[in-house]
Structure formats: structure tokens, C-alpha cells
Design goal:
76% helix; three-stranded antiparallel sheet; 3 strands; mainly alpha; Receptor-associated Protein; 3 domains; 406 residues
């Protein structure tokens, strides 16, 4: 019989610890109640090592959203077909090819066998099972619609992955153009331009060297002399910026700066608002209380500035006021979105209105993103062409002048 370590308090409020042998943690709870002890923590000693290993693995590695969507949908299908929870988890553990997910599923099955709710077991793996997913599973378990809740989590996960993929693919080519152009321009300045400096020395002594050529040679010499220093400074600055982005103040500064980028800032804001609306609508549709839903959806929006605005709206809702008014006052939500939220509140259909808002906002935003990318590509090509042409002309003009003088 497995043993359990417990921490509890007696009737006088004193903390008591000990070990009990029982078939499950529920039996431990009953035994403690018989002794007039109130449990604070109960943990299985036999599974502690395996759980610690699973938690360590989960904390270091993530699982792809597409893989998680398949897991949620398959679990919902098995439960809907009448397969018991423990057997369903066993089947999914055997079928998955992802070692991290398999470890997590095995841990879920072990905890569910001990009587722990599925949502609580999932919450022990925060890098694999999202907070939204855990809360929706909890609401589904309590309300008797667990299969539907799992289906919605799977569908939402697929939508979010598709949204992320479309955004990354849209920006991939402009980033590629910028990277290649920067490499070509740097190579010209470091390896090609210095070969002309000897030819231009006589014109420089006669003070006949064009200012553009002089500036080009100066930049080239600076890159050759201080290029490594500049590279080291850039690497250190990049590492420092990356470290700062892991802090709350750094993330808030970055999120605020992203929203101020011309054109792209509005696109990023609309995508964050759409993500918030979809998460909030999904949670409300699954019976999660609105205050908890607002907190989860605000975090899922992915922008600290927007989250602060949503938190302020949550305080208004807590005091019995509407949601739309503080969102409008925050200035981050588009006017048409706020109006639709207001109508949804008045008609008590917010859970169905919010996903429609997200769909509409995503379609409009992706049209703008596609147009932005289409315009950005020729603009970047033109900029790179002008820069390269400027380097070539700065080198050719003195040569042409010298040949004309001869």
C-alpha cells in the first residue's frame, strides 16, 4: 500500500506533519478528519520521484500547439464514446510520439487514479497545459460538459496556432530581405570598398575627392577598425535586452513600444484584441466566472499594456458596472469592438458575440497585414537597391572624373 506524507493543522491551529499508508489521498483525508486534523498538503511518497522528474521535464520543454490540439480532440472523442478517463489517458499515452507529452499524460493518469480532478493534475504542468485549458476543463467537469469543453480547447488551440503561423509567414520574407541586404551591404563596405582607397589617394591629396566617396571610405575604415567592437557591443546589447524582456518592466516597455510602430502597431493591437475576445468568449461559453475569465483572457492577449486596461475593466465589473465603458475609456479597444461588447452585455449574449468579434477583427487585420507586407517587400527592395547603388556611384564618380581629366 502506498504511503503519503501530510501536513495538517489540529483544532488548536498547530501544524502537524506525518506519514500514513492508504490506497489514495482521499483515504488520507478521511483518516485525518477522524483525528480532528485539517489537511494542508498531501503528497504520495512513492510517486514523488517520478512526479519530480516529470515536472522537471515539463518545466524545460514545451509541446507544439498542434500536438496539444490533437490530444484535446482525441481525449474528447474517447470520453464521448464512453471510454473511462483512466483508460482514455492510457490509450493517448501509448499513441503519442512526443516524450514530453507522454510523461505528462502518465502523470495525469496517476493523479486521476488517486482521485485528483483532471484540471488540478493538468495545472501541475503549466508549460504544457495552458491556464485557459485547465480552467475550461475544470468548468466542464463541474458542469457535466467535459467532452464539449475539451473540444473547444482543441479548436481554440488550432485557431491560435493558425493565427501565429500566418503572422510569422507574412513577416518571414521581409525579414529575409532585410537580413540578406544587410549582409551584402556590410560585405561591400568591409571587403570591396577598401580596394579603391589607393586609387583615390591622389584625388584626396588634391582635395578633389567627392564628399560621398570620402564618407563611404570613412565608414569602411571604421568598420574595419572597430567592426569587432561594434559586433561585441551589439551582442552584449542583445543579451541585455533579452534579459530585460524577461522582467515585468521590460516586457511592459516592449509592449508599449510595439503599439507605437506606424501601421504595424495597429495590426499588433488588433490581433491582441481579437485574441482577448476569443479567449474571453470561449471561457464564458464554458461557464467560467467573468472575473476569472477576464484575468485569464487579459494574460492570453499577450500585451501588458492591454492587460492593464483589461484589469481596470475587471475592477469595474467587480463593483457591478459594465465591461464596455472602461474598455472604451482605456483607449486601446477599437470603437466598433466596444459597441459590439456593449450590445452583447445588454442582450446577455456576450459569450456568443465575442467569438464573432474575434473572427471579424482577425479577417480585417489579416487583410491589412497582407497589404502591409505586399507594400513592405518592394519598399525594402528599393531601399536596398538605392543603398547598393549609392555605394557603387560613390566609387565610380571619382574613377570617371579621373579618366575624363586624363
Amino acid at each position: 500500500m502506498p504511503s503519503f506524507s501530510y501536513t495538517a493543522r489540529d483544532l488548536a491551529g498547530r501544524q502537524v506533519t506525518g506519514v500514513l499508508e492508504a490506497a489514495s489521498d482521499r483515504e488520507v483525508t478521511g483518516a485525518l478528519a477522524d483525528r480532528s486534523l485539517f489537511p494542508i498538503e498531501i503528497r504520495s511518497n512513492e510517486s514523488a520521484a517520478s512526479n519530480a522528474a516529470a515536472s522537471l521535464l515539463s518545466s524545460r520543454r514545451r509541446v507544439k500547439a498542434s500536438t496539444m490540439a490533437i490530444f484535446y480532440n482525441q481525449l474528447a472523442s474517447l470520453l464521448r464514446a464512453g471510454v473511462p478517463m483512466i483508460r482514455a489517458l492510457t490509450v493517448l499515452s501509448q499513441q503519442t510520439s512526443n516524450d514530453t507529452l507522454q510523461e505528462a499524460i502518465d502523470d495525469l493518469r496517476s493523479r486521476v487514479e488517486d482521485g485528483q480532478p483532471l484540471s488540478e493534475a493538468m495545472a501541475r504542468h503549466p508549460r504544457i497545459f495552458s491556464t485557459m485549458g485547465c480552467n475550461m476543463v475544470h468548468a466542464g467537469s463541474e458542469g457535466g460538459f467535459l467532452e464539449d469543453a475539451l473540444d473547444r480547447v482543441g479548436t481554440f488551440t488550432e485557431l491560435q496556432e493558425d493565427l501565429k503561423g500566418r503572422t510569422v509567414s507574412a513577416m518571414a520574407y521581409p525579414v529575409f530581405l532585410f537580413s540578406i541586404g544587410s549582409v551584402v551591404l556590410t560585405a561591400l563596405l568591409v571587403f570591396f570598398v577598401p580596394k579603391f582607397e589607393v586609387l583615390f589617394e591622389r584625388l584626396r591629396r588634391q582635395d578633389k575627392l567627392p564628399w560621398a566617396t570620402e564618407a563611404l571610405l570613412t565608414i569602411s575604415n571604421a568598420l574595419q577598425s572597430y567592426g569587432w567592437i561594434a559586433l561585441i557591443v551589439l551582442v552584449v546589447a542583445g543579451l541585455f535586452a533579452r534579459q530585460q524582456l524577461h522582467t515585468d518592466s521590460g516586457q511592459r516597455f516592449a509592449d508599449r513600444w510595439k503599439l507605437k510602430i506606424p501601421v504595424l502597431g495597429d495590426i499588433l493591437l488588433n490581433l491582441a484584441v481579437a485574441r482577448f475576445c476569443r479567449v474571453l468568449g470561449t471561457l464564458l461559453g464554458n461557464g467560467v466566472p467573468i472575473l476569472k475569465s477576464l484575468d485569464i483572457a487579459g494574460t492570453a492577449a499577450g500585451n501588458r499594456v492591454l492587460k492593464d486596461s483589461i484589469s481596470g475593466a475587471g475592477e469595474n465589473v467587480r463593483s457591478g458596472e459594465s465591461l464596455a465603458a472602461p474598455l472604451r475609456a482605456g483607449g486601446h479597444f477599437p470603437g466598433n469592438v466596444v459597441e459590439m461588447i456593449s450590445v452583447g452585455e445588454e442582450s446577455n449574449s456576450l459569450d456568443s458575440v465575442l467569438p464573432d468579434i474575434a473572427d471579424s477583427l482577425e479577417k480585417t487585420t489579416f487583410r491589412r497585414l497582407d497589404l502591409f507586407v505586399r507594400l513592405l517587400e518592394p519598399i525594402m527592395l528599393l531601399i536596398m537597391a538605392v543603398l547598393v547603388l549609392g555605394v557603387v556611384m560613390a566609387l565610380l564618380v571619382p574613377v570617371l572624373r579621373s579618366s575624363t581629366a586624363v
